[in-house]
Specification:
The complex is a heterodimer. Chain A is an alpha+beta fold. Classes of the chains: A alpha+beta, B alpha+beta.
Chain lengths: 704, 339
């Protein structure tokens, strides 16, 4: 809100600098973001404008008088509202729902939306431009001057905080105001020249012909004050915050009036505001008050009475503020306090946010100053803090991937379903049915991600656009899936990685093909993740996945359950993302891995006897049946209990050397006995068994 | 005979010592010490000497032979060392070439900052818990004392899946989930990803990280909140760094306080980053509202508590001098490999 300083000073005795006042307000709950130097457009006036930010609970700080009251409490100075003068008006005509006097009738149909509607009739006014002082005030406050009558109502809104409206009384059918819910499809041309169509949840001010204003938001064009208007009906009402907010939200209309009503306006302000506006109108537009005000109200609005225990106040704040001081602080805010073992506090209706003891304690803290509350360390902080098992394991996986050369990346949780088209993701996969956002903020991000790979591919692509061809990234994050049952969607922790080019080391003496990452590097990382988490029963199997290159993709399988995929990204995907080199990627279900993880490690005695090493090379058909893992299993089972490891060290296909459709795999075998040195005869016998087995299953042992 | 032997010894000694390389040395060995060498020839002729001369000359010959063998070995070693040294010069390394050890990847700066923040609270005895990123309306707002159709909802700018399911706009729902399942004392921090329908620019993003803290116990005070966060600020940015508390409004705390940190760019003097205030707003805090405690079934007379929520991006940007929030989500290797 724009708060012109000269205007504010009419109600506040300030003996500090403006800078000090702003600091005090900011530290006292009314943030002053900046002070703007303002000069009137015609140069006739200038002022300093405090730009304030009001928290949603403090509707009372949306007026000059409210700010002055609060500032005076903080300053310990005097609040001086005497500038606000009211003319004598006759005792109003009060009724619970239908007030009538002379030519005016006010009828409240919706008492929830409008608990109070006060109105005052003025005659003989002369509508014309406002005098300079009024125009300058409004201009400084950022309000467009319209004419003297409307300007006076706006002035009162700014001064006291009561939004008002002025009708040309002669244009109201039968002088009859009805406050009711709108009918379906009811329309009104508004003051801003837009047509609005209402729904039954909107509250309108109507005459017997139809709506003339949207309650608490904006008046209608047809009944507005015009140059020839002489008889004015002033509206000063109290509207329900929720009702106004719903209307404001669904019609997308936020006005100075709706902003205030949403934040609660003092229900007992309606009559003083009418009097004040009448006085200003008589000053600037002449005319006179035609008759007593009408005051239709559903009920009386009484001040609340609360009780406050000073010791509770100090116990909650950690302070030692004397009871007398507490009473003084509350008194400065305009609350009435009766002292005693408990303070009895009467809260006027201008502070609807104060409802409980704890609310009073906050007020005490604010006037006392948050900065005067001491700093203490909770004395009962015993025991140690912990990470959960999952958090610890996640950290280990991350550390391992970083050691493997991958940099951590984070990408957005939202995606577009067509991102999966670009990735050539299988059409029938569950990832194709993401959770959709009801109100996305961008057309690019309309769904929750079901895989981390689009984010990583996109990152890879961005790097390539920047001529960074060597990429190594991983991400640990949550993906979401809809659930059939009511309740929250499934959240699944995934880990994924991507590599392109030769990001692992400098290349100065390595041929590029040796420096570049490949499938087996990536697989090594995945294996180490599994080993780091103590998984044992996992294996890899060749897989078909349309995002990956055929014959260059594997699934990680735990028991029977697939828990991840890895491989070379399909060429068409590589092209779709405009990537210069082959890209390798993996994605694992980290939740599944963590669930199977074992942190326990059992010590194995370090061997005391030397090992014996032998090699065996076997040529076999180039098919899955003779996969390295199968051959190595055969060797293990044939090699006897002294064979402790079987590691492949060479793999090739070469039509000229070994013929078409065949491949050669060489294994390094390690033999060891726990209690003695093995003899040559034992080794030779084992090797014979191994050779025999490999020949038996259709392999050909090479012995050059 | 003796003289001849001595002359030969001298000659051989010189030949050995003057040998410039192993080839010359080998020639000298063959000439003097070899099976057909001159020393051998003299030794063979000792048998022809008179009886009394034989032992003397024999001893002398042995001595010369030993000395020359020793001298030969010595010279051979010298020459080998020379050669080795010469070779070493040829194979000298250019130690200025870059190393070839695998490059280790880096932790993301935002999460590294979050780790650092968590470490401080672990040290203070807080346990780390996590909650779902997609939440129910109840945990997000109702249980946090948000009235329906309240202006306080404006700043939440929530993404919805449907009326009841939404992307959490703050980590505060975790407070409720923890308190529903645990009696006091409660002492947790909850890190996590949050979402608001914000336009993305250099300082705003629809996705951000928060760290939530909650302490509920008997006689927990607002002063404790201030003290604890002050410790946090100092641990994070050094002893010259302080926290400022000023009144604010959150439906789930009362009293509520905005928390700001001494601007670490200007040290509180006022600069562009802090808008000349000397302070940087980093989050919100306050005493847990009794309505919230009541809703989870806590005795509000017996237990009090405080909570805070701070944004992680701000801390990370300050820590590393990062000026554009979008870099965190850029996936740019040139950015990520810096940390």
């Amino acid at each position: 809100m724009r708060v012109p300083y000269k205007w504010l000073q009419e109600y506040l005795n300030v003996d500090t600098s403006l800078e000090e006042l702003c600091h005090l307000l900011t530290m006292g709950g009314l943030e002053v973001e900046e002070v703007e130097q303002w000069t009137a457009e015609d140069g006739g006036d200038s002022d300093e404008i405090l730009m304030t930010v009001v928290t949603p609970n403090r509707g009372d700080l949306l007026s000059m008088v409210g700010i002055a009251r609060h500032a005076a409490a903080l300053l310990g100075s005097t609040f001086n509202p005497s500038q606000v003068s009211y003319p004598e008006i006759e005792q109003p005509v009060v009724d619970s729902e239908r007030a009538e006097l002379g030519p005016v009738t006010v009828e409240i149909e919706d008492k929830v939306g409008c608990p109070r509607y006060s109105a005052l009739l003025m005659e003989g006014v002369a509508v014309k431009p406002s005098p300079d002082w009024l125009r300058y005030r409004l201009e400084a406050a950022g309000i467009r001057a319209i004419n003297n009558v409307v300007d006076c109502t706006n002035y009162v809104c700014w001064e006291l905080g009561q939004p008002m409206h002025a009708f040309d009384f002669k244009l109201l059918k039968d002088g009859h105001i009805i406050v009711r819910k709108a009918e379906v499809g009811e329309q009104l041309l508004m003051l801003d020249d837009t047509w609005q169509v209402f729904s039954p949840e909107d509250l309108v001010i109507a005459d017997p012909m139809g709506a003339v204003a949207l309650a608490g938001v904006m008046g209608g064009a047809d009944t507005q004050i015009r140059d020839l208007t002489t008889t004015v009906l002033l509206e000063s009402a109290h509207f329900d915050p929720t009702t106004i907010r719903r209307t404001s939200l669904h019609l997308g209309m936020s006005t100075e009036a709706s902003y205030r009503f949403e934040r609660h306006v003092d229900p007992n302000l309606t009559l003083p505001a009418l009097a004040r506006a009448a006085e200003l109108i008589m000053q600037t537009a002449g005319g006179e008050i035609a008759q007593a005000a009408l005051d239709a109200k559903a009920r009386d609005f009484e001040a609340k009475t609360l009780s406050l225990r000073p010791e509770r106040c100090n116990a909650l704040l950690g302070t030692q503020i004397e009871s007398k001081m507490i009473a003084e602080y509350l008194g400065r805010l305009g609350l009435r306090v009766q002292e005693g073992a408990r303070l009895t506090v009467t809260v006027p209706t201008f502070r609807p946010d104060i409802e409980r003891e704890v609310d009073l304690i906050e007020e005490v803290a604010i006037v006392h100053g948050y900065d005067k509350v001491p700093l203490t360390i909770p004395s009962h902080l015993t025991g140690s803090g912990r990470l959960t098992r999952e958090q610890k394991l996640h950290r280990r996986v991350g550390a391992l991937l970083r050691t493997g050369g991958l940099n951590e990346n984070i990408s957005f949780s939202m995606m577009h379903p067509r991102d999966l088209d670009r990735l050539n993701w299988p059409q029938d996969a569950s990832e194709r049915e993401p959770l959709l956002l009801a109100n996305p903020s961008s057309q690019e991000q309309t769904a929750m991600r079901t895989t981390l790979l689009p984010g990583l591919l996109e990152a890879c692509s961005r790097n390539a656009r920047h001529r960074v061809a060597d990429v190594a990234l991983y991400e640990m994050g949550i993906v979401h899936f809809p659930t059939a049952e009511p309740g929250l969607p499934t959240e699944q922790q995934q880990v994924a990685g991507i590599m392109m080019g030769s990001p692992l080391t400098t290349q100065w003496n390595l041929p590029p093909e040796q420096a570049e990452v490949d499938f087996y590097y990536l697989k090594g990382l995945v294996e180490q993740v599994c080993q780091e988490l103590g998984l044992t029963k996992f294996h890899f199997a060749r897989a078909d996945h349309s995002a990956f290159q055929a014959d260059r993709c594997a699934r990680l399988i735990f028991g029977e359950q697939p828990i991840g995929v890895l491989g070379e990204i399909a060429q068409r995907v590589q092209q779709a993302y405009d990537l210069p080199k082959p890209v390798y990627a993996f994605e694992l279900n980290l939740d599944a891995i963590v669930e199977q993880a074992t942190e326990h490690r059992q010590y194995q005695p370090v061997p005391r006897y030397p090992v014996v090493r032998r090699d065996v090379a076997v040529v076999a058909p180039d098919t899955d049946e003779f996969s390295a893992v199968r051959l190595s299993a055969e060797i293990r089972s044939a090699g006897g209990e002294n064979l402790v490891s079987v590691e492949p060290f060479d793999w090739y296909t070469d039509t000229q050397r070994i013929g078409e459709g065949r491949r050669s795999v060489a294994f390094s075998l390690t033999f060891r006995h726990a209690d003695r040195t093995l003899t040559d005869e034992e080794i030779e016998e084992a090797m014979e068994q191994i050779h025999g087995r490999l020949e038996q299953i259709g392999g050909q042992v090479r012995t050059e | 005979m003796e003289d001849k032997l001595k002359a030969l010894a001298e000659e051989a000694r010189q030949a050995i010592q003057q040998a410039a390389d192993e080839q010359q040395l080998e020639q000298a060995r063959i000439k003097y010490l070899g099976r057909r060498g001159q020393l051998h020839q003299i030794t063979q002729s000792i048998g022809q000497l008179p009886d009394q001369q034989r032992p003397v000359v024999g001893q002398l010959a042995n001595k010369v032979s030993q000395q020359l063998d020793q001298l030969f070995a010595q010279r051979q070693e010298e020459l080998q060392t020379q050669v080795a040294e010469a070779e070493r010069v040829v194979q000298a390394l250019d130690v200025t070439l870059p190393g070839r050890a695998p490059r280790v990847g880096k932790r993301h700066p935002l999460l590294a900052t979050l780790d650092e923040m968590i470490e401080i609270f672990l040290g203070l005895g807080f346990t780390v818990v996590e909650g779902p990123e997609i939440e129910n309306y109840y945990y997000s707002f109702e249980a946090l004392n948000y009235p329906e159709y309240h202006p306080a909802m404006d700043e939440q700018m929530t993404f919805y899946i449907n009326d009841d399911v939404l992307l959490r706009s703050q980590t505060s729902p975790v407070q409720i989930r923890v308190m529903e399942n645990q009696s006091p004392p409660v002492r947790i921090v909850a890190p996590g990803r949050c979402f608001r329908r914000d336009t993305v620019d250099a300082t705003h993003c629809h996705t951000f990280y928060q760290l939530e803290g909650l302490l509920v116990d008997e006689s927990v005070t607002f002063a404790d909140l201030k003290g604890t966060l002050e410790v946090f600020a100092r641990e994070m940015f050094g002893p010259q760094c302080h926290m400022r508390f000023r009144p604010d409004f959150f439906p789930f705390t009362e009293p509520s306080a905005e928390i700001a940190l001494t601007c670490i760019i200007c040290g509180g003097e006022g600069c562009r980053v802090c808008g000349d205030t000397g302070w940087l707003e980093v989050g919100g805090s306050g005493m847990v509202d009794p309505n919230v405690l009541e809703m989870v079934g806590y005795d509000t007379e017996k237990y009090t508590g405080w909570a805070f929520g701070v944004g992680v991006e701000r801390f990370a940007m300050l820590r590393y001098g990062i000026d554009d929030i979008r870099l965190f989500y850029s996936g740019d290797m040139r950015f990520l490999a810096q940390f």
